[in-house]
Amino acid sequence: MVRAIIPRKWEGKLAVALLVVAHAALAPPLISVADSASLVAGWAPLYLWTLFWGSVMGVVLLWAAKVDAWGISMDQVPPELRDETGVVGFNDTDRSDVTPPTADRTAGGDE
């Protein structure tokens, strides 16, 4: 499991680093390196290059969303803000003090 290998505090930084590397690999100076007339298993190298790095970006974004790499948790909220404003973290299980927002308008439209 990845969670056992990568500490929670490094997940967001790792996701950003991987996205920056993948984005840099798709920059025009590096794409020109992959552009050649020869084929690799019947495919153009430029197509394989962009497909690979685009897939890396997609996988990193899906992984970061799954592990909530950029989400705020209670350990990131200063204690004085936690006490004063009632900030609730994403992974908190005790949400008894939080009430869902209510709609200000009626269901009938503009009344």
UniProtKB/TrEMBL annotation:
List keywords of the entry alphabetically.
Membrane, Transmembrane, Transmembrane helix
Region (Disordered), start-end ranges: 83-111
Keyword Transmembrane attached:
yes
Where exactly are the transmembrane stretches of this chain?
46-65
Domain of life according to the entry: Archaea
- Name the UniProt record assigns to this protein: DUF3311 domain-containing protein
Q: Which organism is it from?
A: Halovivax cerinus
